[in-house]
């Protein structure tokens, strides 16, 4: 008979290993864009930045302001702001931080289950930079200084 502690440890290790494996490449997280179309983050092409955020998070709001003020640095990238919020909340956030006017900035929604299954428990905002091959270059869990982020673009 397997002891509960052994079962817990085995489950924990498998979970950690699966997070580490998913985090090194563009994840297969399901997203619904504001246009209503569903896609997997894994299907994105080119240099990509994924920003996990919540519209009412003050850290996310500061980071959005910094990204908007430094948008030229993100020109070679497609930015995907992803949240569990409603479309109305996302549209308000995008307009308030003037991110809805850039062709390379996209917004979408996903489920908490998809976030946890992809990245595990994370702080918001969390920002993930992927190269053109879909490999993780750098991750920032929690609010990041834009000047540090720009060094990894």
Automatic annotation (TrEMBL):
A molecular function (GO) term: antioxidant activity
Keyword presence, rRNA-binding: no
Domain Thioredoxin: 20-153
Keyword Signal: yes
InterPro entries associated with the record: AhpC/TSA (IPR000866), Thioredoxin-like_sf (IPR036249), Thioredoxin_domain (IPR013766), Thioredoxin_ResA/DsbE_sf (IPR050553)
Keywords: Signal
Cleaved signal peptide residues: 1-22
Name used for this protein in its record: TlpA family protein disulfide reductase
Native organism: Dawidia soli
């Amino acid at each position: 008979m397997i002891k509960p502690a052994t079962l817990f440890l085995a489950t924990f290790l498998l979970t950690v290993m699966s997070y580490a494996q998913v985090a090194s490449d563009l994840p297969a997280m399901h997203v619904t864009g504001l246009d209503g179309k569903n896609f997997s983050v894994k299907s994105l092409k080119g240099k990509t930045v994924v920003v996990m955020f919540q519209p009412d998070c003050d850290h996310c709001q500061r980071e959005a302001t910094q990204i908007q003020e430094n948008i030229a640095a993100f020109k070679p990238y497609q930015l995907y702001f992803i949240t569990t919020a409603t479309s109305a909340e996302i549209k308000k956030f995008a307009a308030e931080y003037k991110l809805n006017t850039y062709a390379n900035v996209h917004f979408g929604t996903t489920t908490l289950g998809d976030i946890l299954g992809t990245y595990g428990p994370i702080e918001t905002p969390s920002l993930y930079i992927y190269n053109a091959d879909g490999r993780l270059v750098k991750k920032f869990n929690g609010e990041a200084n834009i000047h540090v982020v720009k060094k990894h673009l």
